[in-house]
Design a protein that fits this description.
The chain is of the alpha+beta class and 120 residues long. The chain is built from four helices and five strands, in the order H-E-E-E-H-H-E-H-E. It is 28% helix and 21% strand. The protein binds guanosine-5'-monophosphate. The site of guanosine-5'-monophosphate has 14 residues, from strand 2.
Length: 120
């Protein structure tokens, strides 16, 4: 069940400010408030989807295409495509998802190390 009071829903409604880096009919992207790399951007669909699981099942082909085209364009426009970057979509409890509105993280600007940290 989608929670319309989650923080990204509030950002989409303009109730909470964000540092916008990209917007189109289906997608909003903005800087993460607690960046984990020199570039750390969140790319979100404007539609009300909880997670990648929800988005993949219910979003239109147009929404899905828009999100991935936007993510690639944003990374390129930020100058990250040449040296490389990482996208990440934490999904659900084991995935470490904190905000229940589907989002893709883009990290760039430094070598990003191992793909997944192993708990000790
Ligand atoms: P998750 O763990 O759900 O994949 O990532 C949620 C991300 O949202 C975190 O990286 C966190 O720093 C970011 N975040 C949480 N609240 C806000 C906010 O109010 N504004 C922005 N720009 N980012 C936020």
């Amino acid at each position: 069940m989608y929670d319309p009071d989650n923080i990204f829903a509030k950002i989409l409604r303009g109730e909470i400010p964000c540092k916008k880096v990209y917007e189109d009919d289906h997608v909003l992207a903005f800087d993460d408030v607690n960046p984990q790399a020199p570039v750390h951007v969140l790319v979100i669909p404007k539609g009300a989807y909880v997670s990648l699981d929800d988005f993949a099942a219910k979003a239109s082909d147009g929404e899905i295409a828009a999100l991935f085209r936007a993510a690639g364009k944003i990374a390129r426009d930020l100058g990250a495509a040449e040296k490389g970057y990482r996208i990440l979509a934490n999904t659900g409890a084991d995935g470490g998802q904190e905000v229940p509105h589907f989002h893709i993280h883009i990290f760039a600007g430094r070598p990003l190390g191992r793909m997944v940290a192993r708990p000790e």
